[in-house]
Amino acid sequence: MTLMPRITLRNAMQEDFDEVYPLLRCFTGSNLPRENWRAIFSPPFHSPVDHVGFLLRDNDKAVGFMGCIFSRRSIRGREFDFCNLSSWIVLPDYRKYSMLFMRRLAELDSCVLTSLTPSEKVYKLFMRSGYKQVDQHYYAIPPLPFGSLHEPSVRVTSEHNELAERLTGDALRNWNDHRNLDCRHFLLESEGESCHIVCAKRYKRAPGLRLKNIPVAVMHHASNPDLVGRAIHSITRKLCLRMRAALVLADSRFIGLPSVPFSLTKPAPRLYRPCKDQPFEFAPHEVDNLYSEYMLLHF
User: Fold this and answer.
1) What is the distance between the alpha carbons of residues 70 and 180, in angstroms, rounded to a whole number?
2) pLDDT given for residue 117 in this prediction
3) Which residues pair with 271 in a beta bridge?
4) Residue 227: left (phi > 0), alpha (psi -120 to 50), or beta?
5) How do residues 203-224 score in pLDDT, each as one tens digit?
6) Backbone dihedral angles phi then psi of residue 264, each to the nearest 5 degrees
7) Same domain membership, residue 264 and residue 165
8) Is residue 104 situated within a structural domain?
9) CATH number of the domain that 187 lies in?
10) Which InterPro entries does this entry report, sorted A to Z (predicted)?
11) Residue 146 belongs to what domain range?
């Protein structure tokens, strides 16, 4: 006698990691260490919920998983719950159940949902489901030995103790939540304005070149894109020097310019769905890459 499969979808908990990990290893091209994947099951910052996503099971077998990185963020003095969709995988024989995950997401009315690394299929599905595109591409910017004559001078602070004293409000909270992760924080000051930047040093193929595993500074947050845009080449030189990087990679919404001279542009769609319970018009740079798979998986 053959038993009918019993398909269930429930909340994934921290203790489900060992069961889910074999699914995560199925991601095409993924060679992330086991401990990197474990980080999305136990993020170092406060989560407003007690689970880490959704787990699809056939009887006692894990056959699908959607990772959700929940966080509570302060933006312009208002509190919002964010849910970053870090990973979504369903075994081929169970793809017909994929829409069960979408129904669960649709119930998260109190969360701002973000999808920062969608596949082509997921991108099309989310756009049909009402998600918005907050960015389309990133720039690969080299540290030119010169800049515009009109660029203002910029003071850069990166020392731990100085940042703790000088960052305030939302920037201080972001710094506190990420200071023990593999990233660097910088406070830029120029002409009475300031900007908190968060970058991660990674080793990647150089866009447009055949070079592999070159050190790059990947910008994941910039609180004042207009300041970054006004002094982009000066800031790029300073970031590359301090991080010993060959390039800065920055999503376009972090740079207050329609284009960046002497840079390369690569496609990188970033999606989000606004919170349904708290209507709010986010500036594009406020839907950033913090509290996401970029910070926890280290890729």
Assistant:
1) 18
2) 95
3) 115, 133
4) alpha
5) 988 777 677 889 999 999 999 9
6) -105, 150
7) yes
8) yes
9) 3.40.630
10) Acyl_CoA_acyltransferase
11) 137-269
Q: Phi first, then psi: what are they for 239, rounded to 5°?
A: -65, -45
pLDDT on residue 237 = 96
Question: What is the C-alpha to C-alpha distance for residues 299 and 79, in angstroms, rounded to an integer?
Answer: 28
Number of domains, the chain: 2
Inter-CA distances, 75 with 78, 169, 228, 248, Å? 5, 9, 19, 25
Q: What is the pLDDT of residues 81-119, one digit of tens each?
A: 999 999 999 999 999 999 999 999 999 999 999 999 999
| 3-state secondary structure (DSSP) of residue 107 | coil
Give the integer Cα–Cα distance in Å for 6 and 238. 57
| Residue 28 pLDDT class (50, 70, 90 cuts) | low
Is residue 82 situated within a structural domain? yes
Domain edge (last residue) among 110, 136, 162: 136
Q: Are residues 19 and 105 in the same domain?
A: yes
Handedness of CA 133, 137, 143, 147 (dihedral sign): negative
Phi then psi dihedrals of residue 183, to 5 deg: -155, 165
Strands 61-75 and 78-90, sheet pairing: antiparallel
Q: 135: helix, coil or strand?
A: strand
Please state, in angstroms and rounded to a whole number, the distance separating the CA atoms of residues 144 and 292: 30
Q: What's the DSSP call for residue 43?
A: -
pLDDT of residue 3: 47
Contact, 151 vs 191, CB < 8 A? no
- List pLDDT tens digits, range 176-191: 999 999 999 999 999 9
What CATH number corresponds to the domain at position 111? 3.40.630.30
Look up residue 189 and give its amino acid.
E
